[in-house]
Specification:
10 strands, globular, 43% helix, 10-stranded mixed β-sheet
């Protein structure tokens, strides 16, 4: 596997949109042998992408088996497996949050959030065997896995990584790499979307979604030794400009969706632009200058969806559990709303399967490009 240690996979966040990533990964599987190990010795994930990354790392010795395990979960998903969504549970959780708002900050002992994601913690513990990660690393099927979280305490982007012994921790401005043995709490922290899900206490800090504070999404993969990074994102193609009607203000729900899109996509695009400029600079340097600056060329390939998720999600709004539909309607969201929020929260199997199929289609459409980039 050492000759492939330069290859990394980066899976960005996006709630239910992470199903799309599985479809692209399945497309890659169509041109790999059945007994092929994970073709990406370095795997990095943020938010929901961290869960997919961990699933792959658990079955790094057999890529197709890892895909089947992930696919079974996603294709049979429902929202109740991620957060409490019945009428009674939703409004009980909101009532407890409302009552806790009367407490002083010093006496508040429970986290506040719009939704209670305890079911997700149970699902992660049931479906992911974290002990397999260490075995795959020791046997050479995996070089490293990195899961990103954001510290609300220090404002740092923290990359929790588990990997081979030669990997050193890193400390940069507002970001650090921390060696660890991954467990369910790292994934809960990485996927704790601000306001929607509660923060997680780890290492004496409060942690939230890995895409928050992440000014350099490519950094973990590069620190782990990657020189060729495949990025499967969830940025949607925009068919038109939004919020252009000056006769009315955008709704809070529309702005919430816009903020999530910004968190999960904008920093990645900025980092890719910065990487392109660095690569161009290196191309004009002598070999000696490159050695002095310790810079190296990093190749990236990005796969993003070809179809807007919002329109797909709107068709499945009626599948949402009654408690969540009631809550979202109270907040102003319905099947005609111009917002991305629904596509992050809709974990119903019909929507999940549609996203997987889209990812498969997009991946196959770029098959030759993927094979060339991955040298397989």
């Amino acid at each position: 596997m050492s000759d492939r240690n330069q290859y990394a996979l980066l899976l960005s966040g996006g709630g239910a949109r992470a199903d799309y990533q599985l479809g692209v990964l399945k497309a890659i599987g169509t041109f790999l042998p059945r007994n092929q190990g994970l073709p990406f010795p370095v795997v990095c994930g943020n938010s929901a992408g961290a869960i997919n990354a961990t699933g792959l790392a658990c079955y790094a010795s057999c890529y197709h088996l890892g895909l089947r395990k992930l696919e079974w979960v996603w294709k049979n998903f429902n929202t109740r497996q991620v957060y409490d969504s019945g009428v009674r549970d939703v409004f009980k959780h909101l009532s407890l949050n409302f009552l806790s708002s009367f407490q002083t900050e010093q006496s508040q002992k429970t986290p506040s959030s719009l939704l209670n994601n305890q079911p997700l913690r149970r699902l992660i513990r049931e479906r992911l065997d974290f002990h397999r990660i260490d075995r795959n690393i020791s046997r050479g099927y995996l070089r490293a896995i990195s899961i990103n979280a954001s510290s609300y305490s220090s404002h740092d982007s923290i990359s929790f990584y588990q990997g081979q012994n030669d990997i050193q921790p890193w400390f940069r401005e507002k970001r650090r790499g921390v060696p660890c043995t991954l467990n369910s709490e790292h994934l809960m922290a990485s996927s704790a979307i601000p306001l929607l899900f509660p923060p997680v206490k780890m290492m004496g800090e409060f942690m939230g979604d890995g895409s928050v504070h992440q000014l350099s999404p490519l950094s973990p993969a590069i620190h782990l030794g990657a020189e060729k990074i495949l990025i499967i994102g969830v940025e949607q193609p925009e068919k038109r400009s939004r919020f252009t009607d000056m006769s009315r203000y955008p709704s809070s729900i529309a702005i919430a969706g816009h903020l999530l899109d910004t968190i999960f996509a904008d920093t990645l695009n900025a980092d890719l632009e910065r990487l392109t400029r660095i690569n161009q600079t290196i191309a004009h340097m002598t070999f000696k200058q490159q050695q002095q600056t310790q810079l190296k060329t990093i190749d990236c390939m990005v796969v993003n969806p070809s179809i807007n998720f919002n329109e797909m999600a709107a068709k499945h709004f009626h599948k949402m559990p009654s408690g969540i539909k009631m809550l979202l309607r109270m907040l102003g969201l319905h099947d005609k709303s111009d917002t991305s929020l629904l596509s992050y929260l809709l974990f119903e199997k019909e929507f999940c399967r549609e996203l997987i199929n889209l990812g498969m289609k997009d991946g196959l459409a770029r098959q030759e490009e993927l094979r060339s980039f991955l040298s397989i």
